[in-house]
Amino acid sequence: xxxxHGYGWQLIAGAGMTLKVAVTALGPGLVIGLAGATAKxxxxxxxxxxxxxxxxxxxxxxxxxxxxxFYFGGTVLLTRLSERLGGGYFEVDAFTAGVGAxxxxxxxxxxxxxxxxxxxxxxxxxxxxxxxxxRRGLLFRRILLPQAWRxxxxxxxxxxxxxxxxxxxxSVVGLDELMRKAYLGAGFSRDPLPFYVTAALxxxxxxxxSTAGLQVFERRVSRxxxxx
Length: 228
Hints:
Elements: H1 8-40, H2 45-60, H3 63-84, H4 94-120, H5 123-131, H6 136-166, H7 178-189, H8 192-221
Helix pairs in contact: 1-2, 1-4, 1-7, 2-4, 3-4, 4-6, 5-6, 6-8, 7-8
């Protein structure tokens, strides 16, 4: 039995914060990814270039650097904006910066996953919908999006697992998530190994539960399909 010197509940609270950050970042990340994929498949060159620039930055700059830019840069930007409006100092808290940075990074990778999934939808179904006069928005909602999610789910599942691990970076800006709690406990007890092993096991538990849930979800969205 690992001895965490009475810090067990602190680690559990940190694990809860880790899940809160990951789940909160997931929604905006998916929205950004869908918008990016749509822009990359757009007929407008400007939209494609903006989306390409975004994915290049989000995937090319280290996550830690993006987090620090959101944390410190966001504070500077919002403070200046607040001063122009007659306000004062405005600080971006660690949770908001973490969620914003992780959503930004997740959205960049999700853009490519969703773009590939949309292009994987059979062209014949799209042409058939157009032939019966289905408008572009309705075609996207009823034909493209439901099938694209099925194709994208394995890739998005991998991104979710990566997102869970990347929440550990938010400890750098002082958020009391799992790694921050483990670090504080290790420093207090001067016995770091049990804390970091416990943290590793908790991350592994998140991954196992997520993988099982994703497998159930994949089977559910694939009902009625003929397997090769």
